[in-house]
Structure formats: structure tokens, C-alpha cells
What we know:
The protein has one helix at 114-121, and strands at residues 4-11, 15-25, 42-51, 54-64, 70-75, 86-97, 100-108, 123-132. The mean pLDDT is 80. Strand 3 (42-51) and strand 4 form a beta hairpin. It has a four-stranded antiparallel sheet with strand order 1-7-3-4, with no helix packed on it. Strands 5-6-2-8 form a four-stranded antiparallel sheet. The protein is globular. It is mostly beta strands. 6% of the residues lie in helices and 56% in strands.
Amino acid sequence: EGKQVSYPVRSWIDKPYGMKLITEYVNWNKLVDKTREEIPFSFSAACYRIEKDREVLFFQKQYSKEDRLYLGSGAIPNKPYSPESRAWAGRLGGFRLPYGTYRCDFKDTSTPEIKDYLQKAGVVKTSIVIAPIERVIY
């Protein structure tokens, strides 16, 4: 819908961070598997390291439906829209962040038709998460 959001990140230790696009559906059980792969999304991401009096761009990418999101899984959202709500997570990649302060700006560049498409697909909420990646095997 043309909105832009900024996401502050504070890294206390050098570690990898991953980004995910979370899509919550009002009724996961009524979905056709292909639906979630056909959403015509388009957004840009630009991430900056904040240093004393300047911001240094270290990551920039445009995402769209044509990008292959690494499939996550269905999960119950923290605050579900309804009892049948489930969320789908698509991994967007990530980066390593040393100690410091960062900011990522995300801008929705989808066409206006996406609003109708999301409603028909049963999407009630989308969000982007940036979080540390925990290793399972060391």
C-alpha cells in the first residue's frame, strides 16, 4: 500500500541475523497451497549501520513475487486474528551484524491491486521480522 516502516536493530554481540516475511491467514485450513506463492508482493529493503553522525548503507535489495522465498512453516501467531489463524514464514536472507546500532527501512512498492488480492486470499496481516539466527549445531 505504499507504506514505509523503519526497523531499529541493536546488536550486542557479533552474530548472524535473518529476515522473514510473515503472512497471517484468517483461516489456514481453507487455503490452497499455491495461494501463498502467488501473492503479488513487492517491497524494498535498505539497511544502514548508524555511526556517530552518519548512516552507512550495507544492505539493499528489492523483493517481489518472482523471488523464491525459502519456505518456512505454518505456525500459530503470537496474537492470532481468529482461532483458525495461522502464519506462513518466508525467509528473505540475512546478514552478520557486529556490535552496533542499525536501521532497516522497508517500503511497500506493490501495485494497488494487492489490497484486493490479499483480501481474497484471506490474508489479515503481514509483517517483517529481523532476529538473531540461533545455531542448532556448533
